[in-house]
Amino acid sequence: MSDVISTLLAHMTLDEKIGQLNLVIAGDAVTGATVSEGVVQKIASGAVGGMFGVYGATPVRALQTVALEKSRLKIPLIFGLDVIHGHRTIFPIPLGLSCSWDLAMIENVAKLSGDEAAAEGLHWVFSPMVDITRDARWGRCAEAAGEDAYLGSRISAAMVRGYQENGDNSLLACVKHFALYGAAEAGRDYHTADMSRLAMFEQYFPPYKAAVDAGVASVMSSFNDVEGIPATGNKWLLTDVLRKQWGFDGFVVSDYTSVNEMIDHGMGDLQTVSALALKAGLDMDMVGEGFLTTLKKSLDEGKVTEDDITTACARILRAKQKLGLFDNPFRNLRDESPKEIILSPKHRAAARDAAARSCVLLKNDNILPLQKTAKIALIGPLADDKRNMQGTWSIAGNWEECVSVLQGMKNAAPAADISYALGANVTDDPLIAAKANIFGEKVIIDPRPENELIAEAVREAELADVIVAVVGEAQEMSGEAASRADIGLPGKQSALIAALAATGKPLVMVFLSGRPLTIVNESKQAGAIVAMWFGGTEAGNGIADVLFGDYNPAGKLSMSFPYAVGQIPVYYNHKKTGRPYAGEFPGVVDVPSKFRSRYLDIPNEPLYPFGFGLSYTTFEYGDVTLSETAARGNATLTASVTVMNTGAHDGEETVQLYITDPVASLSRPVRELKGFEKIALKRGESKTVQFTITTDHLKFYNNDLHHDWEAGEFIIAIGPNSAQTRGVAVTWEK
Hints:
By secondary structure, this protein is α/β, with parallel strands linked by helices.
């Protein structure tokens, strides 16, 4: 502990130490039912350590001044906000960003977001959210990087670097939600998550650990319980794993009132759960003020010690010192939001590029790219919409700054003849619309009958050369507290797609969503399909770049698309079964038999698998070669494959490395992503991609949670996605 922090702690009263553990909210960034009261008076008395939801020169300067001029020890406040995928300039939702498989771009998004946040007085961002998500019903899929621990870990570390290694604009990152939040049963937000420790360490923990290894400054606990104890009060999780095993030395903050919510988990009254959380290793209480109101009593009753309180306080003070707040409490704060940073041309250009790179081309029957002189019928409830472009968790963003798809297409192709019709509402249910409009009107229901809306759209379609239908979810149909049991296109949008397909005109379906959708029928009806996700401020320009071929789409799915909700969870790296269906393993022949691990009515595999994504060009993969096929001990192998662009366009391809461990002491996944490289190839160009493989790539957790590898045969496979690979075997001995 530094001399500065030690000296400060020696002068602090117990109340002032507890005050540093108190994070309060003011303003509009409310994510729960509780709002802090008497904030200014509490700051003046030293009862507040940080502010949540306040940004901008005037309010930040005013509140920081209260702390510096009115409180006894003049300890500066730390200001935090949910800067999830941009601050003022909104980038694609994290699920979309993850589909770029572009780590440099993702790190830059974090840097640019941090630049804007720092300019408005923020010190701390509640990002990255790294929960593994395999259930598309869960609304917070939108905030995550998908189903795979390896890809999620690489993205987690990139975002931490982007926020925290940004020179004078460096912020504190906060990895969340620790732990297992993405595994909520039934995809219902805040619900329980129940799994073995083996699954935790092998499949769900790696992205959190990657953030810790990257030096993340803070960790946020999750709402769910872990092995029966809520994460916010789980000592095994917050101390034994996070601090002792992984060496985390930052501070842990609760999620919004998650200390208080342990009462409803059945863990006791507010005093009991607050003491439980502190003893477990929680340092800062977000909004609930259980620490502020009960810790002194718990200390008097011997339920906590003063050392517990001092330790938590010291962690928060060290974070403030790391930020330089003791030397400059108003670091980076501008009296006016600087035009060279906030929504600057540089930031908007980066957002446009990110929007295009996040798009995934799922199908293309030679319809795309569109001609810039074509007669285009642009149809759909999200075609001429700005309100829903940003996606969930875009607190400081302004939808009026967004570019709609219609405007983007007009910008990209001024010579095109583009007509527009609504076609359908996002939803016709006023109750669902009300839920989607909780943070402002995003869903406007046109009162005209369904048949009239569809008929109008069909008339426009019949006059066009090609149809572009822009459909999907409204912004708040995904995100926190936005679970959906039916993840098909909401409202009458499926009927709209069917009617447009019936015209016989070429049909492009572009969909906005915060999750994979069940689009089996639409995948048959549309000639081309683009997953646009929620593209952010520059969404319209980004998708227009893709549709007209100014950018050749290169996105790859980070989360599998199910055929039906009943198939969930569906993910590529599932465990082996004793009665595999045909196609799961080479050489297994499917014969008429009842007793196989399969569905009767749908395939086992997903509609679109992890890692899948098309291009306007084509890529041919050669055979995989290894530097040697027999290795021993700490040898290093090189796996190589030559990829050629065999199509008519320049393009980018993400070459993916998978490893299978056929025989082990535990049943292992059918394959696991262990590397990837994104390459750019001009038409006719080829490149040999090489992956270095060591025994670290072979390691897994056994039943004793020991991380090691076992000798034997391994299959090294490379391909364009998890379902299409070429492999070669290597024998690796100890």
